[in-house]
Specification:
Elements lengths: L20 H11 L4 H8 L3 H8 L7 H11 L3 H8 L4 H9 L1 H13 L3 H20 L1
Helix pairs in contact: 2-3, 6-7
Length: 134
């Protein structure tokens, strides 16, 4: 059950550099005028569990985070970044691919900006398409 009364994108939809995962979810939920109980019910968790997430006492699973993103109309990748953990498939890939880890570390060391990361993402998508064509 998504909350139909909310606008599509608000300024609160963009994480502030000071935001933690919990503070971002709480700030967005409040801006959307959704109660903790209503969001918890829509996501399928208890209000106390959601409160623990919002107060950074618990780190939600990827599945719970996906439901929160869907209900609050937020970008899952932004929430995953604030969560500070990778999804299971990405972690498995990194375990099997030391070159991917080197690339990730190099990106972090170079502190690429958003435009550079977007270009790198486009290049990766092109490489993936070429691989499928073979």
């Amino acid at each position: 059950m998504q909350f139909p009364h909310r606008p599509r994108r608000l300024l609160t939809d963009v994480p502030d550099r000071r935001d933690t995962l919990g503070s971002y979810i709480r700030r967005t939920r409040s801006a959307r005028q959704v109660t903790l109980r209503k969001l918890a019910a829509a996501v399928g968790v208890t209000p106390s569990y959601l409160s623990d997430i919002e107060n950074d006492r618990r780190v939600p699973s990827e599945e719970v985070l996906e439901r929160i993103a869907r209900e609050l109309d937020l970008d899952l990748d932004e929430l995953m970044a604030l969560r500070g953990k990778l999804d299971d498939a990405t972690e498995e890939y990194l375990k099997r691919s030391p070159a991917a880890v080197r690339l990730f570390r190099r990106i972090a060391q170079q502190e690429l900006n958003e435009a550079q990361l977007a270009e790198l993402e486009r290049q990766a998508a092109n490489l993936g398409r070429r691989k499928k064509e073979r």
